[in-house]
Amino acid sequence: MSQITSLVLCDNSPLVLSGIVQLFETDPRFVVKASMTESARFLEAIDRHNFDIGVMGWNMPYCSGQEALRRLKENHRAPRIVIYTGDGSVSIPRQAMIEGAAGFCSKKEPPERLVETVSMVSRGSMVFPFMDVGAATADPLETLSPRETELLKALADGLTNSQIAKSLNISLNTVKFHLKNLYQKLGVGSRSQAISRYLRGTISG
């Protein structure tokens, strides 16, 4: 008899969460020990449950998937993590790998691909889409355009979007467009996370 893999599932969409719970509960290879819509509760579940693999989103409120992975590095009970997200940014699989995830699956793939990814991770594999291995270890700050770097510095200085637009002589919509691209490149989901990433890079550099 094959070994059963225990899971805890986390997604900020109740509808998506319900779907993936059903997906794994109908597969005899897996047992779902818990599910939740908040990453903070997912982190708490690690201390309450002994499970093999956690499946969680990336753009989670309050504590992103990236931040959760960083916290798990300090937890000796940490399970293997598969990131499951609908965010199409090409930088996210790279960031997830750098932060210690064992696998990545896009919500744009058929649901069966998530099951396949988790199954492969349970057998000891790392599962990520094809990427430039050299780029996987590159500092995302180095991938920013001069304009994006300018915006990031402005964020760190505490400027609002309106103040940035005025100082750079661009429209507010253009600021928002650049910030969206900036967040994707850094693999973050908020202004505070972007500033934190910039400050870490400045200090280490």
List the defining traits of the structure above.
Rossmann fold; alpha/beta; 205 residues; elongated; five-stranded parallel beta sheet; Arc Repressor Mutant, subunit A
Layout of strands and helices, then pairs:
Blueprint (H helix, E strand, L loop, with lengths): L4 E6 L3 H12 L4 E7 L2 H10 L4 E4 L8 H8 L7 E6 L5 H8 L4 E4 L4 H12 L10 H4 L9 H11 L4 H8 L3 H15 L4 H14 L1
Parallel strand pairs: 1-2, 1-3, 3-4, 4-5
What's the gyration radius in Å?
A: 18 Å
H and E order = EHEHEHEHEHHHHHH
Q: How would a crystallographer describe the biggest sheet?
A: 5 strands, parallel
Stretches where pLDDT is under 50 for at least 5 consecutive residues are none
State the end-to-end CA separation.
52 Å
Q: What is the CATH architecture term of the largest domain?
A: 3-Layer(aba) Sandwich
Could you tell me the number of beta strands?
5
CATH superfamily of the largest domain: Response regulator
Summing up helix and strand content along with how strands pair, one would put the structural category as alpha/beta
State the name of the first-level CATH class of the largest domain: Alpha Beta
Spatial order of strands in the largest sheet: 2-1-3-4-5
Provide the CATH topology of the largest domain: Rossmann fold
What percentage of amino acids are in beta strands? 5-15%
pLDDT averaged residue by residue: 86
Whole-number count of domains: 2
The multimeric state of the shown protein is: single chain
From the spread of the alpha carbons, the general shape counts as elongated
